[in-house]
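Possible regression after last week's pipeline update?

I re-ran a chain I had predicted before the update to compare outputs. Posting the input and the new output here so someone can diff against the archived version. Not blocking, just want to make sure nothing changed silently.
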Amino acid sequence: MSQNNVLKGVLLVALGATTYGMLATFVKMAYSEGYSTAEVTTSQFVLGIIGILIINTFQKVKNKEKVVKATSKNIFHLMLAGTSLGMTSLFYYLAVKFIPVSIGIVLLMQTVWMGVLLEMILEKKLPSKQKVIAVFIVLIGTVLATNIINNDIVLDWRGIVWGVLAAASFTTTMFTANRVATGISSAQRSLYMLLGGAVIVFTFGFFTQVTPFNLAIFLKWGIVLSLFGTIIPPLLMNLGFPLTGIGLGSIVSALELPVSVMMAYILLNEQVILSQWVGIILIILAIIIMNVNFKQKK
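New output (post-update):
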């Protein structure tokens, strides 16, 4: 693979991670205007599905017979996998309703050690020393990044619970997304996973939206949320990861963490102290350790 292709992949993944890192701040801003979690998630998924449908139609017209169509089995498996995508959005947005965005993104990044644990359970083998070290660094970084050692800081337990649940469902999403129906286009996979996620989101909205649904959310925040949450990041990362490889791509995608914190600091005026930045750097370091091959090639 040429150096230019790798650089192109790094730029695509970096842009995708940066875009997704901005998402929680926009959600928090929508909350400040009185919109509910159901309104935020529903508008994001409805417009996201429409956007991905347009992309799929464009690809079908452009490539004609070259596009491999998803089978009914592919569709079922992708929609089933997509339910965890819907739960990730719901849990994450519920988390940032009760805790700062800078804390919520740190909790979401617990996917680092959750992924190692899930891999150990599924493959029935102990993780490498490299991964164990990375997990310990993540845990230390989390303690610093959430600032829980400061007795003056009291975090809402509801936000912490939702944040951990978001990390758990996101871990499931990452594992299934890389293993289910990989033979069809990324746009088709994104569409059916979004449809699966929409089932969860719409069900949540049906049971929790007690006031009339405010349709203004679609124009005010829905377009932004769908672009930054369900359309741009997956498409850019699906294009970039094959060029960078999983290791380098995972390292670059860690940009999501500092971008999310910086956005919260600039637009929401959230306080982020030095020890929290140290914790964030440690988490990024752990991701690098986990994905770099330290063994010399013979």
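Follow-up from reviewer: compared with the archived run. The chain has one domain: 3-291. Marking as no regression found.
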